[in-house]
C-alpha cells in the first residue's frame, strides 16, 4: 500500500512538473511574441517616418510626394484593426514610387538624398524580417496552444490567442537590390 502511494505521488509530481514546464514555455512564447511585435511596430514606424520625411523633402516629384506622404501618414495614424491594410498600402506606394532605378538615382543625386535613400532602403529591408520573426513566434505559440494538455488544463490562462501580422511587405526592387554601404 505504501509503495503504491509513493508511485502515485511520484506520478503526480512528474505530471505537475511537466505541466509547470509547459506553462512556463507558453509564457516565454507569449513574451517573445510581445517583444517581436514591439520590434515590428518600431520597424513599421521607422519605415513610415522615413517615407514621410522623404515625401516632404522636395526631392521627389509632386505627384510621387503626395502619394507617398498620404500612404505614410495613413500607416502612422491607422487604428490597430486597419494597420495591416494601411501598411500594405504604404508598401504599394513605395513600390509605385521607387520601382524604377532612375527614380532612386534621382533621389540619391539630390542634396541629402543619398542618406535618405539609404535609410529608406534599410527600413524596407528590415520590415519583412521583423514580420517574419513575429509570425514565427505566433506560429510556435499556436502550435503549443493546440495541444490537448494545454487546452485541458488551461495553461494559456487568459492570454489572447496570438494573431499573425499579415501584410504586403515586398520592398521596391530598386531599393531592395542595392547593397548597403
List keywords for this structure.
single chain; 181 residues; mainly alpha; 7 helices; 0% strand; rod-shaped
Low-confidence stretches: none
Q: What structural class do the secondary elements suggest?
A: mainly alpha
- Coarse shape: rod-shaped
Distance between the termini: 75 Å
Overall residue-averaged pLDDT value: 92
C-alpha Rg, in Å?
Answer: 24 Å
Q: Would you count the extended β strands for me?
A: 0
- In what range is the share of β-strand residues? under 5%
Explain the overall architecture:
The chain is an all-alpha fold. The chain contains 7 helices and no strands. The longest helix has 55 residues, at 2-56. The termini are far apart.
In short:
This protein is mainly α. The protein has helices spanning 2-56, 62-77, 83-98, 101-109, 113-145, 148-152, 173-176.
Blueprint of the fold:
Blueprint: H1 2-56, H2 62-77, H3 83-98, H4 101-109, H5 113-145, H6 148-152, H7 173-176
